[in-house]
Write a structure and sequence with these properties.
The chain has 252 residues and is α+β, with helices and mostly antiparallel strands. It contains five helices and 17 strands. Its EC number is 2.7.1.23.
Length: 252
């Protein structure tokens, strides 16, 4: 028997599902679990992956939320069988190193994307460098983001960024509502690259940075790179993994 730990978001639907599943299948502590089943939406899945990244157990999500791109369909009867047959995909997060105007430094991991967004009424002015070379001296925009392939269908796609194959060794660098250069549509950069974004006129045009809902206010410099040492293991039902979902998303 597979030892399963069930976790649920605070939502009523997820809490009810948790109660029924534990009553039916039992529950195991996180430290002893072979598989973690997360009940909720994509936001809760991201929280679970971050909170359990120090454990060896993979995470199998069941959708009790809204979109559920990272989740499998919800079912109570065949959980053990589905977990046993599930296919594993490994993704690496981004690491964000942000420096605020007061000199404080902040670090965070992001499975989907690291984003910078204007925090005032005026557009942000950003300077973008890749591996130490300035590529865009001034981008006037509402913000910019660096996305992983796994996160490319989330905020990145809403900002008209490209959908990336899950195994691609590239990251998407995408502008949010670019004003100047108006036609700049972003860039694809090697996964091994480091992106540096400097905030110009930071006092006049304040900017916040965010790594999977971990926010830092009044940033002046943000460094972003992939973190290969951290491996998030996610389980999907056969034929419904991230590769299939990324392709399907492009035809809707």
């Amino acid at each position: 028997m597979i030892r399963i730990a069930f976790l649920a978001s605070p939502a009523v639907q997820a809490q009810d599902a948790h109660e029924r599943l534990v009553a039916r299948h039992g529950d195991t502590s996180l430290e002893e679990a072979q598989v973690i089943v997360a009940l909720g939406g994509d936001g809760f899945m991201l929280q679970t992956l971050h909170a359990t990244q120090h454990l060896d157990a993979p995470v199998y999500g069941m959708n009790c939320g809204t979109i559920g791109f990272l989740m499998n369909e919800y079912s109570e009867a065949d959980v053990v069988e589905r977990v046993a047959a599930a296919e594993e995909q490994v993704i690496n997060p981004l690491v964000m190193e942000a420096t605020s105007a007061d000199g404080s430094r902040h670090t965070g991991l992001a499975i989907n994307e690291v984003s910078l967004l204007r925090a005032g009424p005026q557009a942000a002015k950003l300077k973008i460098s890749v591996d130490g070379k300035v590529r865009l001296p001034e981008l006037v925009c509402d913000g910019a983001l660096v996305s992983t392939p796994a996160g490319s269908t989330a905020y990145n796609y809403s900002a008209h960024g490209p959908i990336l194959p899950i195994g691609a060794d590239v990251l998407a660098l995408t502008a949010v509502a670019a004003f100047r250069p108006r036609r700049w549509r972003g860039a694809l950069i090697p996964k091994r690259s480091e992106v540096r974004i400097d905030v110009l006129e930071a006092q006049k045009r304040p900017v916040m940075a965010d790594a999977d809902s971990r926010s830092v206010e009044d940033v002046v410099t943000v460094l972003v790179r992939s973190e290969p040492e951290v491996r998030h293991r996610i389980l999907f039902d056969p034929g419904h993994g991230l590769d299939e979902r990324l392709i399907r998303e492009q035809f809707v």
